[in-house]
Amino acid sequence: MRSRVSVQDSALRNGNFSLLIDPVRSEDAGLYEAWVTYNTEVQRCQVEMGVITVTLSPPSPVIENEPVLLSCNSSHQASLVETCWFHNGHPVPTARTFCSLPGALSIFRPAMSDAGPWRCQLRYSDNKIISTTYDLQILGFDGPTNPVVYAAAGSAAD
């Protein structure tokens, strides 16, 4: 992890011995412990870090009209009770376009309008709610519904 972690030396003088991990990976989940010695006093701190991930199948890039599966997983140990998905802040109803599975969402024919932030919210048997956002990028044609463009001879067309 050496290349992904840092401690702010200037913050240590103020009693802040935080560890920054960037980027966080799934395997980083677990118990972290810090020991700080000052004169003869030893301070100890333990922090449990959970990790939530969203993965795409097939992997990026997502092509317009080709099915994609968004999977949401967490290192939380309780049983998963419910998965909710939100697109642009609005709940996603399961219909013929979307199909929600435990921890996953299938988009059968992704359109350019499906690009943007998708939030996965997981609720567990211990009532813990964990969520994360994934910015979905879609490759496709985002132009007029009738892709015929007229331009005057001698002018530029975009």
Structural overview:
This protein is an all-beta fold and 158 residues long. The chain has two domains: 5-49, no CATH class; 52-139, Immunoglobulins (Immunoglobulin-like). Helix content is 3%, strand content 47%. The protein contains one helix and 14 strands. A four-stranded antiparallel beta sheet has the order 5-7-11-10, with no helix packed on it. A four-stranded antiparallel beta sheet has the order 9-8-12-13, with no helix packed on it. The model has no long low-confidence stretch (mean pLDDT 88).
Number of strands: 14
First-last Cα distance? 47 Å
What is the general shape? Answer: elongated
- Lateral arrangement of strands in the main beta sheet: 5-7-11-10
Q: Could you tell me the radius of gyration in angstroms?
A: 23 Å
Number of domains: 2
Which residue ranges are poorly predicted, with pLDDT under 50 across at least 5 consecutive positions?
Answer: none
Largest sheet: 4 strands, antiparallel
CATH topology of the largest domain: Immunoglobulin-like
How much helix is in the residues?
A: under 10%
Give the SSE layout.
Elements: E1 5-6, H1 9-12, E2 20-21, E3 30-38, E4 41-49, E5 52-57, E6 62-63, E7 68-74, E8 80-87, E9 90-91, E10 98-101, E11 104-107, E12 116-124, E13 129-136, E14 138-139
Parallel strand pairs: 6-14
Antiparallel strand pairs: 1-2, 3-4, 5-7, 7-11, 8-9, 8-12, 10-11, 12-13
Give structural attributes.
158 residues, mainly beta, Immunoglobulin-like, 4-stranded antiparallel beta sheet, 47% strand, elongated, cell membrane, disulfide bond, immunity, glycoprotein, immunoglobulin domain
